[in-house]
Design a protein that fits this description.
heterodimer, A: alpha/beta, 10 helices, B: alpha/beta, Rossmann fold, 7-stranded parallel beta sheet, two-stranded antiparallel sheet
Chain lengths: 290, 185
């Protein structure tokens, strides 16, 4: 009896000294399991956002612990699909941060006018809102015919949605305002047709966009680009994975190629930071030097 | 990671309240402070300059992966959630919580996850429920929660919601909160 008491006491001492956070351990096991069994690598995602999103999934799946979620994901591919959607969909809007699109018009477009052909990589395009925004901008500047936009995302379901170019009609009022703030030159409603509760964007906007699956955590460079756009995607990665992606971007940009990041992101963690110059410091638009 | 972390949530009337709070803090205050002040997504950087005038600590709008350092007052950027990692900040553009991005709940919950009992949460004036769940999360991890006395708040709804949701440690006026923080530091 005394032994049991002593044992319990020692256990509690060990637990309180090392303070293992059970949820952190469960999280690591879940990510490792998904990687080993399905090949999706979330091991270098930023933990804080990951935890938040996983708690939301737990709630939706009506599960109490990450361990239970692990069992369900490993034994039920449908649950994996729901998990991937919950983890990878990045919320955005058309012309998010209109001042970025305005700066792009003013500082990048004049450079592009000298190019015979422009290859653009939109990395982590999610449901495509910002890709269509860029297509509209390029069309208005008379450059779209010379462009090819490669819009990639790790998630197939999200890409399908992006390809469809259909968004809730209720968002159009907000998008119209952002479009105008971004320096839009037409009437925004010319770019879509309303059908029931949906806004279907014109197929001409899609003509030079190639949607394809690409995972920034595991896939390699697939072309050389004049422009890479990756806004508010890297915030979901830890610094190790961010460095990997910055290497990938540097390899994939041609000389004087342009890299655009999100408003609160920077090249600080890039091993290649000194190989770029600021094209617009505030809007995080950089140009590769060598 | 011995230091504590102070997380502050403010909404309607928050700018004036933050000004008083920062003015009353000791110049040598060493705990890092992270603030979510609800604001319009287009709001410019004047808010940084405004807060900087009240304190000798360095006021900074957070960029992704910024280190959490002592001597700084960090402000969540407009239209991003602010989250806490082991020794640095993270940002997200996930859906707003109670129509708010940045959300006080998001900051408080992730701070509690990492700093646990070393988290000090402070809920100031505001006209909504944001921060109540976050305050409860801080308490659940053994942290300290102080709430601005609703009688002294420009808008009492947010402090009242936090008080109703969890057993907060102290309900104080702004100068009293600052004095309490100075003593803890």
């Amino acid at each position: 009896m005394l032994e049991i008491k002593l044992c319990c006491y020692l256990m509690s001492v060990v637990m309180s000294v090392s303070q293992p956070n059970l949820e952190d351990i469960e999280l690591q096991l879940l990510l490792e399991g998904i990687y080993q069994y399905y090949g999706f690598d979330f091991r270098n995602y930023a933990v804080s956002s990951l935890k938040r999103r996983i708690r939301k999934i737990l709630h939706a799946e009506e599960l109490a612990t990450i361990s239970e979620l692990q069992a369900r994901i490993l034994h039920d591919p449908d649950c994996l699909k729901r998990f991937l959607l919950g983890i990878t969909v990045n919320v955005t809007s058309m012309f998010r941060d209109p001042s970025f699109f305005l700066a792009f018009r003013q500082k990048v477009i004049p450079l592009l006018r000298t190019y015979p052909y422009i290859r653009i990589w939109h990395a982590g395009c999610s449901e495509g809102q910002e890709v269509y925004s860029m297509a509209i901008l390029l069309q208005e500047e008379g450059l779209y015919n010379r462009c090819r936009i490669y819009a990639t995302d790790a998630n197939e379901i999200v890409l399908q949605k992006a390809k469809s170019g259909i968004y809730p009609l209720g968002l159009m009022q907000q998008y119209t305002q952002l479009y105008l703030q971004a320096g839009g030159k037409q009437s925004f409603s010319e770019y879509y047709t309303a059908a029931y509760d949906s806004a279907i964007f014109r197929t001409t906007l899609r003509e030079n966009i190639v949607f394809s699956q690409h995972n920034l955590a595991t896939d390699r460079s697939f072309n050389e680009f004049n422009i890479i756009l990756c806004r508010n995607v890297l915030i979901y990665f830890d610094s190790v994975l961010q460095q990997r992606v910055h290497q990938l971007f540097h390899e994939s940009l041609c000389t004087f190629g342009i890299l655009a990041l999100g408003r609160q992101e920077s090249l600080r963690l890039s091993p290649f930071a000194n190989r770029y110059e600021d094209l617009d410091k505030r809007e995080k638009i950089y140009r590769r030097l060598d | 990671m011995e230091s504590r972390l102070v997380v502050v949530g403010a909404s309607l009337g928050g700018m004036a309240a933050l000004k008083v709070l920062l003015q009353e803090l000791a110049p040598a205050f060493t705990f890092p402070i992270a603030i979510v002040q609800h604001r319009h997504k287009d709001s410019a950087n004047q808010i940084i300059e405004f807060l900087q005038r009240s304190t000798s600590l360095i006021v900074k709008e957070v960029e992704d992966k910024d280190q959490i350092a002592s001597g700084y007052v960090y402000l969540a950027p407009a239209d991003y959630h602010l989250l806490i990692e082991a020794d640095h900040f993270a940002l997200s553009t996930d859906d707003p919580v109670f129509y708010a991005r940045p959300s006080i709940d998001v900051l408080f919950e992730s701070a509690a996850d990492v700093y646990r009992e070393r988290t000090i949460g402070i809920i100031l004036t505001g006209a909504n429920q944001d921060g109540a769940a976050g305050a409860a999360a801080v308490k659940a991890c053994g942290g300290v929660v102080m709430v601005q006395d609703p009688a002294t708040a420009q808008s009492p709804v947010m402090p009242e919601a936090a008080i109703a949701r969890t057993s907060v440690d102290e309900i104080l006026s702004l100068p009293e909160i600052a004095a309490r923080l100075n003593r803890l530091c």
